[in-house]
Design a protein that fits this description.
519 residues, alpha/beta, 2-enoyl-CoA Hydratase, Chain A, domain 1, 3 domains, eight-stranded mixed sheet, seven-stranded mixed sheet, 20 helices, elongated
Amino acid sequence: MSNTDKVKNLIELREKTKLGGGEKRIEAQYKKGKHTARERIDILLDEGSFEEYDMFVQHRSHDFGMENEQYLGDGVVTGHGTIDGRVVYIFAQDFTVFGGSLSETHAKKICKIMDQALKVGAPVIGINDSGGARIQEGVNSLAAYAEIFQRNIMASGVIPQLSAIFGPCAGGAVYSPALTDLVIMSDKTSYMFVTGPKVTKTVTGEVISTEDLGGAHVHASKSGVAHFVAEDEEEGLLIIRKLISYLPQNNLEDPVITECFDPIDRLDDDLNEIIPDNPAHPYNIKDVIFSIVDDSEFLEIHRDFARNIIVGFAKFNGRPTGIVANQPNYLAGVLDIDASRKAARFVRFCDAFNVPIVTLVDVPGFLPGSAQEYGGIIIHGAKLLFAYGEATVPKITVTLRKSYGGAHDVMGSKQLRGDLNYAWPTAEIAVMGPKGAIEVLEGKKIAEIEDVEERQKYIDAKEEEYREKFANPYEAAKYGYIDDVIEPRNTRFRIIRALQTMSTKKEMNPPKKHPNIPL
């Protein structure tokens, strides 16, 4: 074969590889509203930046007639490229080849790019679309999954790991995305579960559909496994691009600061009036967030899960920042099991990748009741407490209204190494609200007053007395627990100034193998 023929053969092999499992199977993908693996990569990465690895890899199985069915690439496309000029490593499973099932060689391709990503310090993005383990390879397939899991664990907190679920992801396959930092699912075309509907019915008798058992909205609203639900794959890939813009390449770098044209001293007079006069009335904390961040851009994470707390990314004068905020218009912003888990993981994620944290506080306490106690609210609440206390990134806390009891401590308080703690003049920082406090402090006296009207007058007077003495920010400021009481409309400027001041912060935790967070 001449050199010309060899080059021609190479070109033909490349074109054959790009067809995956063939045109009929590609057409089947399209009918399901799904893209091919390479199309997904092309949408995600900067144009022309993708460098593919292991295009000619083939499986090594000789059982069940597998030796007679070979496809170049073995069901996964791997390599690296750039997003906004920054290097990322990527793998995209190809459902047109053996249903995207994972073989020994398929896994080796994934492990290779994960190993390289760790060496060079770049994010890893996995696009999952797989029927699970390749049964024909038996235990080799299971071992291959474990090889990936081990790398997920070693990379955790070192390089960002993002997972897109754009098709089936079941059985052992679910644990790799679960070990990564953020999970994006596509609506109606993706699902995740450890055990499918058929086995569920056989074992438990429960009849349930694939969508109701492990669909995108189930994991976004009930389990919390999915951080985002995208309407389609294009939106999911754009979310990944946006997420990368808020994150550094690795744990030794800081997030990229971009140019900002939104004035840092922009005032919003509406903030001075946003807190209702009646402390029982709700308002939308997102109105505050949109008002103070750059260009009103806020990328919310876990939007449909534990809606009593808000977490997500924004920028302050071009500086990527994580925001944690109680949401008064959902369960009054109370902290419960799911809210504690959601916020704790986000705080730890930000801390791992040097993203400063801004906390907006309006929390009446922890949710009471046997369901919460039996579910372990003590342990789950301690996770959030632990996360804030462990974090060494700059932490700026602004108390807007209520900050009661143990929930005050948990939400980025000065005693958990909050760097700068501000309060609005509407802040109420106390052990508990006036009503509950008076019931405890004056309960005996109240019981002695027989006349109903007199009793209520006494209660109202004592509540007002308590409110004036404790339900304001100046008592906490008197002790230095609040660094300053600020005008609400000036919040953006004060946060930006605080983040600039703390940008050179250096704080170290005691040497240890690893902490024992209450799981």
